[in-house]
Amino acid sequence: MKRFFTVSRGRAEIPVVLSCDHAGRELPAAYGTLGLSEAALRTCPDVYDRGAAEIYAALRRRLDCDGIENRLCRLLIDVNRYRD
């Protein structure tokens, strides 16, 4: 089973966990392209937050703290919203 998130452990002893909720635009194969063209998935600003993964990675390196990065497409699930 493919995991669509990465959990990273830091070495710093600080009580901080960084999260990057909209780092990617991956979709499980069962969902296809959600009816969108490949071009739309590459260019639509609602699919993921451009630059979020890079900023997250830089901050995690600098703080050397724990982190979790979600690579699922935000159009499928927005992981920082309530279920309803």
What does it look like?
- This protein has helices spanning 38-43, 52-63, and strands spanning 5-8, 17-20, 66-70.
- By secondary structure, the chain is of the alpha+beta class.
- It has a 3-stranded mixed sheet with strand order 1-3-2, with helices on one face.
Show the helix and strand layout.
Layout: E1 5-8, E2 17-20, H1 38-43, H2 52-63, E3 66-70
Parallel strand pairs: 2-3
Antiparallel strand pairs: 1-3
Entry keywords:
single chain, 84 residues, alpha+beta, 21% helix, elongated
Brief synopsis:
With 84 residues, the protein is α+β, with helices and mostly antiparallel strands. The chain has helices spanning 38-43, 52-63, and strands spanning 5-8, 17-20, 66-70.
Number of helices: 2
Task: Report the major sheet.
Answer: 3 strands, mixed
| Low-pLDDT residue intervals, each spanning 5 or more residues | none
Mean pLDDT: 88
Structural class: alpha+beta
Question: What is the overall shape?
Answer: elongated
Order of helices and strands: EEHHE
Strand fraction equals: 15-25%
- The largest beta-sheet arranges its strands as 1-3-2
Total beta strands: 3
Rg, please?
14 Å
Helix content: 10-25%
Distance between the amino and carboxyl termini: 27 Å
